[in-house]
UniProtKB/TrEMBL annotation:
The keyword Repeat does not apply. PROSITE patterns: THIOLASE_1, THIOLASE_2, THIOLASE_3. Its main location: other. The lineage of its organism: Eukaryota, Fungi, Fungi incertae sedis, Mucoromycota, Mucoromycotina. Gene3D superfamilies: 3.40.47.10. This is acetyl-CoA C-acyltransferase. Belongs to the thiolase-like superfamily. Thiolase family. Pathway: Lipid metabolism; fatty acid metabolism.
Length: 415
């Protein structure tokens, strides 16, 4: 059945020859012209704590327009990933686009595939370009976990469905407990989790000190309110969740956060954060016609389902699926951006696939930078493109686990 479906999909897919193939340039390639993000700041404490999602996203949109020099009227469609925004964030996203300078003729939508929402947005736009539905589009993400994280973002669920289907009930397991399940099932030690987490901070701090994030971060103005209610306008241009001096020894002193006998702590899990990111895409022939720079291209992506109770294993299964579509192996990839939702699942995924740790999150990940849910998938692309350029590497993969039991991965090539 699977092979028959592949045959049918092959007949239906547009024939573009060598388009979106590694090592080959084609006018039909879906290319990245700009990939930028805001700084990622701590929820309720950081630089964007008093900012609304559309304010952060508008700043990033403006950065994409200014950096790429594109005429905003040429952008046909925008898709924005967000998980927590009320009403699906549709109005907020539209307001951000209009405020940034896109005309009313530029369409916009939002998408929610939980932690992969930002990547899903990019893939959705890339697919629309591949199939000829649009010429130019933006895949983006925004999230204010300060404003929207917590019980108010949770929809009511059916006890009947949970009682009748164990897997459905498992979708309601708190994310921290799914981390404990991964650590327990696959024997990921507390020591290894803390070592991985400390390394994330060390690498991120080095990247920040050396200015390696400067190319991907667009400074965004924000209004910050102090404890007395006084407002000040500041420019946010640095990730503020990175903790200097973090060591595995210090992290080992933290108490488990979800299970008294567990291994997941506030120190080896991702941070609750605010931010935005955006990726401008079009075909190579369009970029050449407009005289716009090409920094990389989208190759392919894959999304897979995994058991909800161990949702964190998603990258271990999504990455091979994406690599198979791209026709390459784990060792052919130069750099990986694997989301650090929890050290337990990130360590498991890296070890499961035998990926050398020196290829993974070379500038740190969500444990140090933060994980604004709808943003991460787009943020990783900005980070990956910058890292590939700095290290003179070519092929990169982004991936993340997804709440309720999925994993997603995408393959990119630097120009």
């Amino acid at each position: 059945m699977a092979s028959r479906l592949q045959q049918v999909s092959g007949h239906l897919a547009p024939s573009n020859g060598s388009a979106n193939k590694i090592g080959h340039k084609s006018p039909e390639d879906v290319v990245i012209v700009s990939a930028l993000r805001s700084a990622i700041t701590r929820a309720r404490k950081g630089g964007f704590k008093d900012s609304l999602p559309e304010e952060m996203l508008s700043g990033v949109f403006k950065g994409v327009i200014e950096q790429s020099k594109i005429d905003p009227a040429l952008v046909n469609d925008i898709t924005v990933g967000t998980v927590l925004a009320q009403g699906g964030g549709a109005t907020n996203a539209r307001m951000a686009a209009l405020h940034a300078g896109f005309p009313e003729s530029t369409a916009i939508s939002t998408v929610n595939r939980q932690c992969s929402s930002g990547l899903q947005a990019v893939v959705q736009i890339a697919t629309a370009i591949q199939t000829g539905l649009i010429e130019i589009g933006i895949g983006a993400g925004f999230e204010s976990m300060t404003k929207n994280y917590g019980a108010t973002s949770l929809a009511p669920t059916s006890e009947k469905i949970s009682d009748e289907c164990a897997s459905a009930a498992d979708c309601l397991i708190p994310m921290g407990i799914t981390s404990e399940n991964v650590a327990s099932d696959y024997k990921v030690s507390r020591a290894k989790q803390d070592e991985f987490a400390a390394s994330s901070h060390t690498k991120a701090l080095e990247a920040q000190k050396n200015g390696w994030f400067n190319e991907e971060i667009i400074p965004v103005k924000a209004t910050v309110e102090d404890k007395d209610g006084n407002e000040t306008t500041v420019v946010i241009d640095k990730d503020d969740g990175i903790r200097p001096g973090t060591t595995a020894e210090k992290l080992a002193k933290l108490r488990p956060a979800f299970d008294d006998e567990g291994t997941t702590t506030a120190g080896n899990a991702s941070q609750v954060s605010d931010g935005a990111a955006a990726v401008l895409l079009m075909k190579r022939k369009t970029a050449e016609k407009l005289g716009l720079p090409v920094i990389g291209k989208y190759i392919t992506s894959a999304v897979v389902g995994v058991p909800p109770r161990i949702m964190g294993v998603g990258p271990a299964y999504a990455i091979p699926a994406a690599l198979e579509k791209a026709g390459i192996s784990v060792n052919d990839v130069d750099l990986y951006e694997i989301n650090e939702a929890f050290a337990s699942q990130a360590v498991f995924s890296v070890d499961k696939l035998s990926i050398p740790y020196e290829k993974v999150n070379i500038n740190g990940g969500a444990i140090a930078l933060g994980h604004p849910l709808g943003v991460t998938g787009a943020r990783q692309i900005a980070t990956l493109m910058s890292a590939l350029k700095r290290t003179n590497k070519k092929v990169g993969v982004t991936s993340m686990c997804i709440g309720s039991g999925m994993g997603m991965a995408a393959v990119f090539e630097r120009e």
